Amino acid sequence: MALVTADTTPPIATREHTVDGFTREFLRELNFGQGVDLTRASVNDKYLAMARTVRHYLMTRWIETLRRQAELQAKSVAYLSAEFLLGRQLDNALLASDLQDIVREGLANLGIDLDELREAEVEPGLGNGGLGRLAACFIDSLATMNVPSIGYGIRYEYGIFQQTFVDGRQVEKPDDWLRLGSPWEFPHPEAAVTVGFGGHVEQYQADDGVVRRRWVPGWSVLGVPYNYMVPGYAKGRVNTLRLWSARATHAFDLQIFNSGDYAEAVRAQTFAENISKVLYPEDSTPQGKELRLQQQYFFVACSIKDFVDQVLPEGYDLHRLPERIVFQLNDTHPVIAVPELMRVLVDEKGWEWDEAWAVTKQCFAYTCHTLLPEALEVWPVELLGRLLPRHLEIIYRINDEFLAELRETYPNDELRVRRMSIIAEYPVRAVRMAYLATVAATKVNGVAELHSQLLRDKVLDDFAGYWPDKFTNVTNGVTPRRFVKLSNPGLSDLVTEAIGDGWVTDLDQLSGLEPLADDAEFRRRFREVKQANKRRITDVLAARDGIEVHPDTMFDVMVKRLHEYKRQTLKLLHIVSLYEKVTTGKIRLEDVTPRTFAFGAKAAPGYVLAKQIIHLINAVGSTINSDPALEGRLTVAFPANYNVTLAETLIPAADLSEQISLAGKEASGTGNMKFMLNGALTIGTDDGANVEIRRLVGDENFFLFGLTEPQVAELVDRGYHPSAYYETNEDLRHALDLIASGAFSGGDRAVFEPVVSNLLNEDRFLALADFQAYVDAQARVDEAYADTEDWTRRAVLNVARGGFFSSDRSMRDYIDGIWHTHPVPPGS
Question: Could you list the residue ranges forming a coiled coil in this record (predicted)?
């Protein structure tokens, strides 16, 4: 067999956007990068060579972006986030470099199928869900909008766990996403940063005679940066995502190794690397809590030192730091960055406290992503003082000065002063990180109108009263590049044919589709796209999970993290109730709308009840799917390991989007936006961004149900008794009784008793209270779905009115109201 090899001419600086040019570079990379020829190359060899070839086409823009930024010193956004849930990178890189057709043709000429190589890419699971996916959307938008930015996070060796099901139960396996190599990263060990932990604080006399304090760490680790390109669409900037990996400062002791104690010889290396080993280690143990705090400090310390010492030019006047950077705190995980910047300015740069605090307060902005008290991080003083003693001193001083201000403003209200203290006294002395962020930030924002209002009124109400102008709202958004253009090419082509391609970077242009909702031919083609997407997910689920679903059914989809407040149990009770009615003859099978109920959810490893709910969903699904009497009219699909890659196939197929959290508990949601933009109708409560979706799409195109947030508060205040709803609602009682009877557990009543007992006796998120309203709303769904033309009209209107939910719009809101940065196109 003849060898197919590359020519040996050096790579050109400006890549040739032709099929022949790509083919030459691909073969060169395969030969000299992977060290194989085409005839012997594995699929992974070819994928790695292709990925590196594609990235070559982006690197000129990346280098030019970095050069221009160094020259202009424009103000940048540093997005500090413990999560970046990027999804697969290949398709996004092909889109940004405009190489899709060239690469497909070039590979085909070599007998290679691009789609086969796509499947070889392993998604980096560097996030848990919405928080990390949002961060990825935001950095995509900033690059597309030509805004200077850098993302800072952690290069977890093992990302969010791989979820498998064993007998219907969730079993976690390591997410070894790096096992076959990562062609999208650029390691820079020469730029490693040293980060200290533990030790003590000492007092000393500086050269100027001033008595100062300094931290003497007890041990340290190295943070090694790995850079990723963040390419903007349509030849925009290529910004940088910098992820940090922990390494030991002295990884190997040869003398101990030679003595035969091999484990002890690498103990320091193992200990250090634990910091970036796993995304969100289980924190139900003291060791897990400590490791989480180590992770958080590690990445922000690396990032601040990197920006101050390596990104800024030598000799830069740090008094002007707010003119050059804003650090956006993505939730409470990076808030330890506030005392870290103070430590750098006061201890390392020798500044006076007041001048350091004046600069620090101008450099941070804080996004709160939750309304749940347990999600607002609180670190025990004992742990923080042991791990970061100097930072605890700094936090105490920040708090002392803040409380002194409060006592001047509220001289007769000591209770308010205590409520607002950064240091909590009960049940243990601890640092309230959300309070620290609020005190230090220039702006504090929620992520949907309702969420931001509840932040002001309930969660941080004392602070909003003290600083009313500090609080603002920025409703979340999603990138239309990944979640329409790439994930739904059929819809993308249809929309572009109808209104042009400007919508990809200006999603408000989708409003041009609105008149077409009344065009019968457009509706027909819209349905064809939806049906093709259903066939696509049907094939994927069959091949990926062995799950058989029917493309001619309504796709009723609920995908999100498994948590009680998101109320997967409410959806499940509806399914069980429907099944119970059909099997007992209360309703005829032919009167039931054929549905595929699709779930996607992971439960935190230590969240026992959530894992029991997953087991119950799978058990119900197994029973329903194996019942021949149902004739395939009801199917439950719960594919394991829901991730961005699966979302990109499942969301475009959805007819109905389930957004049914208890009102007042969901901050925003972004899945609800993705479903809307892909032509699904929403059934949901008035919670999070659902409020804005309903207002924009119209009440008639949204299936609203359930208690409002004030009604929830009133019911809880007067005493909520879930068993009362069980006793008075026959359908609910029969559904719960069926689960309790062992019908879905082989007659074993004990298996799902904890779930049933929790709903009947506690039901923290009022699933039973909203059950009947939810069932009634589902009846309205059935009625609407029966009118195919009208349902399609509503679906088109959902797309047409979804332009507000672009992450580009979110970025404009941040830029105008918080960051005050400006676009800097490459080469401008």
Answer: none
Give me the catalytic one of 479, 569, 670, 685: 670
What does the CA dihedral 289, 293, 299, 300 come to, rounded to 10 degrees? 150
Provide CB contacts within 8 A for 223, sequence distance 6+: 192, 193, 194, 195, 244, 245, 246, 247, 298, 299, 301, 302
Query: What domains can be seen in the chain, in order of their start residue?
Result: 73-88+123-476+813-819 (3.40.50.2000), 490-805 (3.40.50.2000)
Given CA atoms 508, 512, 518, 523 in this order, what sign does their dihedral have? negative
Active-site choice (390, 561, 571, 611)? 561
204 φ, ψ (degrees, to nearest 5): -150, 165
pLDDT tens digits for 98-144?
Answer: 999 999 999 999 999 999 999 999 999 899 888 999 999 999 999 99
Q: Residues 28, 242, 277, 369: which is the catalytic one?
A: 369
Active-site residue flag, 46: no
Listing DSSP states for 283-352 in one string gives -SSHHHHHHHHHHHHHHHHHHHHHIIIIISPTT--GGGHHHHEEEEEESSTTTTHHHHHHHIIIIIS---
Choosing from 56, 560, 694, 794, the catalytic residue is 560
- The reply to whether 571 belongs to the active site is no
The dihedral over CA atoms of 444, 448, 452, 453, expressed in degrees to the nearest 10, equals: 160
Q: Can 485 be counted among the known catalytic residues?
A: no
**From residue 645, how far is each of 62, 598, 697 by CA, in Å?**
26, 16, 28
Closest CA to 174 of 189, 160, 195: 160
Model confidence pLDDT, tens digit, residues 784-816: 999 999 999 999 999 999 999 999 999 999 999
581 labelled catalytic: no
Q: What share of the chain is helix, strand, coil (3-state, %, to 5)?
A: 55, 15, 30
The helix or strand, by DSSP H or E, that contains position 265, with its residue range, turns out to be helix 262-265
Which residues face 697 on adjacent strands? none
- Average pLDDT over all residues of the chain: 94
Q: Is position 670 annotated as part of the catalytic site? A: yes
**DSSP-derived 3-state class of residue 70:** helix
Q: Are the beta carbons of 215 and 189 closer than 8 angstroms?
A: no
